[in-house]
Amino acid sequence: MTASERPRAGRKRSEASRTAILTAALDLVRAHGYAAVSIDAIAAEARVGKHTIYRWWRSKAEVLLQALSEATDEQVVPVETGALESDLRERLALIFSLSSHEQPASHLLRALMAEAQLDPAFHALFKGYIERRRGHLRAVFERARDRGEVAEGVDLETLIDMVLGAMWYRRLIQHGPLDRPFAESLARITAHTARTALPAGRGGAG
Questions:
Q1: How far apart are CA 25 and CA 56, in angstroms?
Q2: Whole domain around residue 36: which residue ranges?
Q3: Where the record puts its DNA-binding region(s) (predicted)?
Q4: How do residues 42-101 score in pLDDT, each as one tens digit?
Q5: Which of 119, 163, 126, 170 is nearest to 141 (CA)?
Q6: Considering its fold, how many domains does the chain have in total?
Q7: Are residues 84 and 158 in the same domain?
Q8: Total-model pTM
Q9: 93, 89, 171: which is closest to 130 by C-alpha?
């Protein structure tokens, strides 16, 4: 092995620090809530200097968005049952099991949504997080369209808005639970709409 092929110790230390920071941030939020967490607290918990955190992120919101995104990607795996309704039902049920109202992930998502309304730079990052989730749903609907489960001309982006809009409204207002019965209902209504909706531009007069 040549010198250029050997792993660099600095890179290993950087990755170890990054992992420690993300883990510490989530641990602190679970223990104390979003409002009580600071960059100072994250640095102390991760045993790194604040400058190490600011090398990669601008704020605690950015740290926590990264931590949540990576944790979610590990836990929410693609589900392919061969039918749109069951694909949606199982995916939504899994998401809700990890982020029901009383769970730390749901509290964190609400806090990050609020931060995104106040900080334009963070809004761009949060939008990217949401866009990746839209991409996951888009793949579900595209597979369903290929199977003939989506009526010709139906706008997939509107179907995605229906699912995420219902989920986020319930997450923010908390007027009803994020649970399996809601996943079943939302999946059933969305699948029915996908099969029977009029194509874009073909609706009746408003």
A1: 14
A2: 10-58
A3: 38-57
A4: 999 999 999 999 999 999 999 999 999 999 887 887 789 999 999 999 999 999 999 898
A5: 163
A6: 2
A7: yes
A8: 0.84
A9: 171
